């Protein structure tokens, strides 16, 4: 396996966007290709989850190859619910590292805001095992993570304020990110009195419905931000099969793989983007990534250890909660932010960062990917 | 890159099946794992196209990992319309050849017959570029290949009888395949007087709506039927962008790659499964694969060169036309048949075969994969 690095970044503004699925993806891809110096591209991978259900559009890989003028190159869409983008990146990275392709374009895209909330909720539930009883019983994702949050507070002594602290932190980061969906200032008080979604989760604790696309270019060698490791794991797709509701096995296992491959541990990570689909999920993820002990994540949040000046700034882009969550694009947009941090050109730049980590979750723990990157350390 | 070979095969009966998407996939996977001797599996890839739209079910990769008891292994769905299966196989093969995984399970699955024909037709049209004018103008896949057939007959002198000869051949093969959707005998006369779909294509010239799943196990080394080469290409997803309606660029390019990688040419191929989504497509494909000169495929069919005793038997499983076309499963079921041929255990076994080829198409030429396999030559 040879080295591979990220040499191009592109991303649309996230939020409500009148552009089509295809147009969003083209915008992000063009920006990434220009940023990479318009290299010859050998293949394209696209992370997308709901193109068929919400936009009546599949074959997005082939469409992009044609529209971008890349010739008859192989094009592949990958799906793993909300981890579709991270999985696309992993495939592309391995194909470059293995020498099958020299340079690959990886895009993530989703178009959601044109559909009704009911339709979106129904489509997102295709990320549960609907042949068993979850979909039939009416469980939704906010429902699942609401249960988890209640149990977490009961077990470990966290309070609703700690969920709000995650949401405030990510909003404060998003306020400085012109590509984030939400830039309006908020407060603990506003968050705690916002419209309830599933107790204890309110409106600000849940990632929004978003349109958007992100893209990166990976190439062989060390000319960009180096990919140190790629981890991917699966976990139980059914709530009743999860042995411990307060740990996400797929995050732990994908992180274990990535740390091992990189020869690094959690203490070596300088900056993180992780999958805060709900405020609760961020607290679980900082624990499952090994950044903080199980059951202490809420204390780390309280002490400011997950922001600038703390142990490891988390979701400096604003995270899914405030940057937005165009599902297929999310995993790629996380990598855009981490690579920007390691290039020292990010919004909410963290000083002196050299090693960054991006973690992307799918379903209620059905998939997780972890990628670790190394900047030049300039 | 190290050698990799196919050591396990599984397939449900194709046709109308009351089982769910998940159950179909599990059946095929279990059969393939048993056939492979229940090896430790490092990852799973699944080709699926319409799970979200027709069954409200995505995350099928993770569901299979859980249901099959494979542990927290990486699981990935790939999509490239009707080439979703071929693309899944290609990813899996390269990950084994590159040494990322030692043994990978590859499944393809689709559940279609429970939905109305209108809904299925609409869902299949997500394999066109609907942001441009094709979907909007109401073009369907039978419409496209009907236009192609008319033009082919005009240019090269083929007659409707030649389309019927393809359909009869594939039905005759399917009559001996207990897993095929259609086993009832037919005749040129019945085919030519069947219900018209899009002139000149009638009912027997169009692949059916089908439920089914297929699976294979790939492992490092030479213990099974060896994978010699993998080609994948894209082509214009819009009819008006296709320079020559009578050639499918993605088939030509994917074949070119595969022949080059294998160090073989079309004359070295002993048996072929190809993507006869319509009778016309089989004639184009035998030409675009280089098995016969452009414009002469219909003569080859007339002379019996694509069946037992001819130059190269094509679609000995019955093909999409009569084996059936559960979209995501098709590419894998083609490989099941080719590997069976090279194991000398196939339905409609061809004598003395050593090299086989499987070609899987997506859209109106948006994707094609070509895989070449080598048996032990016993």
Automatic annotation (TrEMBL), chains A, B:
Keyword Transport: yes
UniProt-listed SUPFAM superfamilies: Thiolase-like
Residues of the Thiolase N-terminal domain: 6-219
UniProt keywords, alphabetically: Lipid transport, Lipid-binding, Transferase, Transport
EC numbers: 2.3.1.176
Any Pfam family hit: Thiolase_C_1
PANTHER family, per database record: ACETYL-COA C-ACETYLTRANSFERASE, NON-SPECIFIC LIPID-TRANSFER PROTEIN-LIKE 2
Domain Thiolase C-terminal residues, every copy: 237-374
Name of the protein this chain belongs to: propanoyl-CoA C-acyltransferase
Keyword Transferase in record: yes
GO terms for biological process, alphabetical: lipid transport
Molecular function terms from GO: acyltransferase activity, transferring groups other than amino-acyl groups; lipid binding
């Amino acid at each position: 396996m040879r080295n591979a690095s990220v040499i191009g970044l592109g991303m649309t503004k996230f939020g409500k966007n009148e552009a089509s699925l295809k147009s969003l993806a083209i915008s992000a891809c063009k920006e990434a290709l220009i940023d990479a110096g318009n290299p010859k591209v050998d293949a394209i991978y696209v992370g997308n989850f709901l193109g068929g259900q919400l936009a009546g559009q599949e074959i997005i890989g082939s469409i992009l190859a044609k529209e971008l003028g890349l010739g008859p190159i192989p094009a592949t869409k990958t799906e793993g619910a909300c981890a579709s983008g991270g999985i696309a990146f992993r495939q592309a990275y391995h194909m470059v590292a293995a020498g099958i392709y020299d340079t690959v374009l990886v895009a993530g895209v989703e178009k959601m805001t044109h559909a009704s909330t009911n339709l979106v909720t129904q489509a997102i539930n295709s990320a549960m095992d609907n042949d068993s009883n979850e979909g039939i019983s009416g469980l939704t994702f906010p429902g699942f993570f609401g249960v988890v949050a209640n149990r977490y507070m009961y077990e470990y002594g966290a309070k609703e304020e700690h969920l709000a602290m995650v949401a405030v932190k990510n909003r404060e980061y998003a306020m400085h990110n012109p590509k984030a969906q939400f830039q309006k200032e908020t407060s603990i008080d506003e968050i705690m009195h916002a419209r309830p979604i599933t107790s204890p989760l309110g409106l600000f604790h849940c990632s929004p419905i978003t349109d958007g696309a992100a893209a990166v270019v990976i190439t062989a060698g060390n000319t960009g931000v180096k990919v140190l490791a790629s981890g991917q794991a699966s976990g139980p797709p059914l709530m009743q099969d999860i042995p411990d509701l307060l740990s996400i096995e797929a995050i732990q296992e994908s992180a274990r793989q990535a740390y091992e491959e990189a020869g690094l541990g959690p203490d070596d990570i300088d900056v993180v983007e992780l999958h805060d689909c709900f405020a609760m999920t961020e607290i679980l993820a900082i624990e499952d990534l090994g950044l903080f002990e199980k059951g202490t994540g809420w204390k780390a949040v309280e002490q400011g250890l997950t922001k600038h000046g703390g142990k490891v700034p988390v979701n400096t882009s604003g995270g899914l909660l405030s940057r937005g969550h165009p599902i297929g694009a999310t995993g790629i947009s996380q990598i855009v932010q981490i690579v920007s941090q390691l290039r020292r050109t990010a919004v909410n730049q963290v000083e002196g960062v050299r090693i960054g980590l991006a973690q992307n979750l799918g379903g209620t723990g059905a998939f997780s990917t972890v990628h670790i990157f190394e900047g030049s350390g300039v």
